[in-house]
Every structure is written in structure tokens, then in C-alpha cells.
Amino acid sequence: MEADGLGGEPTLENCEVRCTACKKAKDKVDNKIMAKADRVLMKTYGLKRRKGPPMMGTKASGFRKRMDGTVERR
Asked: Among 13, 23, 31, 72, who pairs with 18 as Cys (CB 3.0-4.6 Å)?
């Protein structure tokens, strides 16, 4: 059965109980495949991930720099 994130059905039959060791082993395989699927989808729609923290002073940073040089939260 295929994981829900990889196109499988989100049904009760698709659920399995696993021990911690088995879950970690399966997650290593599934997470790589799901990450690639996410990258392909983002590329399809022309979306890009932000590389690094937001520039200081922008709305995304959450801070504002006043004219006198003081910095405050937005």
C-alpha cells in the first residue's frame, strides 16, 4: 500500500501499526519520495522556497527600524 502523501487512499485499510525501528526505516524511504514530489509540484507552479532569514526591516522579519535608529517589533 502506498502512503497517503504519495497518492494512496486515506482509508483505515491503508493504516498499519509499526514498531519504532520499522517506522524510522519506512520514513527514511517515504520522506525522500514525498520531498521530491513537493519539489516537482513547486517547480510546476513556479514557486520558490525562501533561502535564509528575511531581510531586516521588511514586514516578513517582524521588526521595524525607526528614523532615529531604534528597532521595534511590528
From this structure: 23
- DSSP secondary structure code for residue 63 in this structure: E
Of 58, 38, 57, residue with least CA distance to 49: 38
Do residues 3 and 30 touch, judged by C-beta distance below 8 A?
yes
Identify the residue whose cell numbers are 519539489. Answer: 39
| pTM of the predicted model over 0.85 | no
Give the count of beta carbons closer than 10 Å to the beta carbon of residue 56. Answer: 11
Q: How far apart are the first and last CA of the chain?
A: 48
The cell for 71 is: 528597532
Region of residue 47 (phi > 0: left; psi between -120 and 50: alpha; otherwise: beta) = beta
